[in-house]
């Protein structure tokens, strides 16, 4: 499926109780521009996972899977704890309106918490210490991401989950771009690109479409 847009409601209805990679989809979590996210539970050991399914073009989700796989391939010895872990990816057969479509999907770790909500539980000195601790851990995740030649391009509080209610995890690599090759050489910059990301968090270069022109 590379050109057909799907109604998120249709996708949610079609996938509840669907089994993917031994994970049974139990609840819809939300939908964005490129995909819908679901909470899933392993049919044997009952561990949870998040499954993201493409709503429009499969290309975006395939690239997101490739980006997340890069995190695994290049960080086996010194893998950061603050980047979302991919388990599996592929295509599933989605039946809507009696039509079967092949939709790209990613099975990844389940990190449902919210960093802002977590900080809001504290007051005074504890609020300051907790905020600084989460900020440093999140920066560690961004540092590891950048060290692999990847720019997130949609970093915001909503894209940071919480593992075990205490460890921040950077999520949603749908707009990420790999800016260097395996030897660390920068890829050629594009002089003009469509605006990307979330307007209230985006830089002026992104809003103007010059995000990757290496302008100062």
Structure description:
It comes from Bursaphelenchus okinawaensis. It holds the Pfam family Pkinase. InterPro entries: Kinase-like_dom_sf, Prot_kinase_dom. This is Protein kinase domain-containing protein. One of its GO terms (molecular function) is protein kinase activity. The protein is α+β, with helices and mostly antiparallel strands and 216 residues long. The protein folds into two domains: 102 residues, Phosphorylase Kinase, domain 1; 96 residues, Transferase(Phosphotransferase), domain 1, CATH 1.10.510. 27% of the residues lie in helices and 28% in strands. The strands form three sheets. The protein has a six-stranded antiparallel β-sheet with strand order 1-2-3-4-6-5. It starts with 7 loop residues before the first helix and ends in an 8-residue tail after the last helix. The model has no long low-confidence stretch (mean pLDDT 81).
Q: Main attributes?
A:
2 domains, Protein kinase domain-containing protein, Transferase(Phosphotransferase), domain 1, Kinase-like_dom_sf, globular, protein kinase activity, 216 residues, alpha+beta, 10 strands, Phosphorylase Kinase, domain 1, 6-stranded antiparallel beta sheet
């Amino acid at each position: 499926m590379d050109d057909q847009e799907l109604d998120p409601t249709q996708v949610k209805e079609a996938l509840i109780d669907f089994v993917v990679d031994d994970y049974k989809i139990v609840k819809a979590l939300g939908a964005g521009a490129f995909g819908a996210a679901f909470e899933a539970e392993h049919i044997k050991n009952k561990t949870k996972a998040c499954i993201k399914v493409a709503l429009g073009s499969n290309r975006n989700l395939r690239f997101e899977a490739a980006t997340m796989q890069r995190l695994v391939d290049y960080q086996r010895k010194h893998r950061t704890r603050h980047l979302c872990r991919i388990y599996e990816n592929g295509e599933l057969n989605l039946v809507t309106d009696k039509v079967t479509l092949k939709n790209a999907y990613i099975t990844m770790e389940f990190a449902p918490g919210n960093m802002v909500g977590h900080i809001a539980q504290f007051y005074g000195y504890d609020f300051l210490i907790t905020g600084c601790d989460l900020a440093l851990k999140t920066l560690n995740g961004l540092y590891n991401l950048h060290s692999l030649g990847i720019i997130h391009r949609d970093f915001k509080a909503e894209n940071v989950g919480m593992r075990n209610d205490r460890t921040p995890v950077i999520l949603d690599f749908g707009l990420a771009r790999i800016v260097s090759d395996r030897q660390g050489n920068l890829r050629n910059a594009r002089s003009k690109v469509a605006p990307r990301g979330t307007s209230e968090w985006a830089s002026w270069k992104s809003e103007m479409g010059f995000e990757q022109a290496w302008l100062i």
